[in-house]
Prior knowledge:
This protein is of the alpha/beta class. It has helices at residues 15-26, 38-50, 65-79, 102-129, 142-146, 152-171, 198-205, 212-217, 227-234, 273-278, 280-285; strands spanning 6-10, 30-35, 55-59, 84-87, 135-139, 178-184, 245-249, 252-255. It has a single domain (6-186, 222-255), classed as 3-Layer(aba) Sandwich (Rossmann fold). Strands 3-2-1-4-5-6-7-8 form an 8-stranded mixed β-sheet, with helices on both faces. Strand 4 (84-87), helix 4 (102-129) and strand 5 form a beta-alpha-beta unit.
Amino acid sequence: MLDGKVTIVTGSGRGLGAAYAKALAAAGSAVVVNDVDEAAAQSVVDEITAAGGRAYAVAAPVGPTETADKLVAAAVEQFGRLDALVTNAGVLRDKSILKMTDDDFETVINVHLRGTFTCVRAAYAYFKENEVPGRIVTIGSPTGQRGNFGQTNYAAAKAGIVGMVRTWAMEMKRAGVTVNAVVPVAATEMTRTVPYFAAAIEAMDKGETMPDFFRKDLGFGTPDDACGLITFLVSDAAAGITGQAIGVGGDRLQVWSHPEPVDTRFQDGGWSAEDLAGIADEITANSQSVGEKFPPLPEELQRG
């Protein structure tokens, strides 16, 4: 499906990023594997090449422009071209707002948001200059769509990424470049510590299929479950899809809506505070929920 393509995957030394890199290589793409951990990046490269694929490791922290330029240069120097970019790199510094330091906030914003910006800018410059109808896949999160307690920095970064995607889809349209956000819901090192997901993690570790409650009701699965969407969006088959936020996890696929008004009304002369106080109950009735709401865990899946 991706024969002859060359793709950069940031943050691909482990977890979801490693799964993406290996899936893209298996589909025929050469892959520039990036991670701040050189040994982790090289391990993924070794695994890809052992399976007959093509890959090259670039150990560098995502965020600075220098890293973005280095990644594009590596793709061109090692494989002769660049066709796609997957911006997966990220870190977590979870704390409630009064405990979150400037460094906690800036570190997450720098890697997720600035790193996505610098890498996309560098890749798009190459695509446009060389008339390549490139593919850009950014990584969002349910937290960026709905919020999550203790993740001010992460929520801001992931929401910002989706906002940039919508803007870039307009800016890149004439060049034939597509850009989309994938919102994966999958088992990671973070979910390993959450009792709610224990039965799912246990099944995955045993090489068994996760219970339907996780795969269907929650749309929660393994890292490999997200790879089909990534591979598709990098392929020529996805040429007509751009500016979208698409969720994937377990057996579930979702196209997220763009924010739309749920109640619109007009009043001659505008709205005073007193006018608004008079319809406060109606405003409250249309208030939108925040955060994700998980259904009760079935008794047979409870652990401990």
